[in-house]
Amino acid sequence: MSGTIATRLAFALFFTADVFASDLDFVKENIYVSLRLPDTMCVTGEYFFAAKDGSALSTSVVYPFPVDSSIAFPHAIQVTDKEGPVAFRSHPEQAMILIPVTIGKGDTGTTIVVYRQRLKRNTGRYILTTTKSWQKPLGKSNYSVTVPSNTVLIFLSYESDTVYQKNGSLVYSFTKSDFMPARDLVFSFKRR
């Protein structure tokens, strides 16, 4: 295991343990991935959290990014919640950010993360497998990958439920219930 991977893993486990200690539940997510040619993947993620016992809660959550030889660290990141913009700590060396999450008593907190990543090859990836570290499947969650109409999606790691056209693009979408991902959301494409 390389030093960088070991550092990322240790850092993620440290903060993940903090999240579990605070009794936070990761309830569901809606993920919208879109390809912007020539080389950018845009992701909008809506994440829903709740305190396991319904109490008010303030903690931090690790948000990892897929960074490797084919995908760079995001060049633009925005985080918001019900109150507006959220200040987060960026850790490019660990390929992640640390997001504060505050939930009112008996409430469900919603955090929205929007980011853009440059793709060095014709493949993109969104990390799903960290859901395992929450030790509980996600409730009903929605996913979509949108590509321009002059692009063909040649691989998608999950079978789409529907494929439709929207604003000159093709949208591949799928919904999962009680979802414990075994693999990340990966796609490959080529131009027509």
Q: Summarize this, please?
A:
β1 (24-36) and β2 (40-51) form a beta hairpin. The chain has one helix at residues 3-21, and strands at residues 24-36, 40-51, 57-64, 76-81, 84-85, 89-91, 96-103, 108-118, 123-126, 141-148, 151-156, 162-166, 169-176, 185-191. With 192 residues, it is mainly beta.
Please characterize this protein's 3D structure.
The chain is mainly beta. The chain has one domain: Immunoglobulin-like. 10% of the residues lie in helices and 53% in strands. The chain is built from one helix and 14 strands; from the N terminus they run H-E-E-E-E-E-E-E-E-E-E-E-E-E-E. The strands form three sheets. Strands 5-4-8-2-1-10-13-12 form an eight-stranded mixed sheet, covered by helices on one side. A three-stranded antiparallel sheet has the order 3-7-6. Strands 9-14-11 form a three-stranded antiparallel sheet, with no helix packed on it. Strand 12 and strand 13 (169-176) form a beta hairpin. The longest helix has 19 residues, at 3-21.
Q: What key phrases describe this protein's structure?
A:
192 residues; Immunoglobulin-like; three-stranded antiparallel beta sheet; 1 helix
CATH T-level topology: Immunoglobulin-like
Question: CATH first level: which class?
Answer: Mainly Beta
- In total, the number of strands is 14
Instruction: Give the mean pLDDT.
Output: 88
Strand order of the largest sheet: 5-4-8-2-1-10-13-12
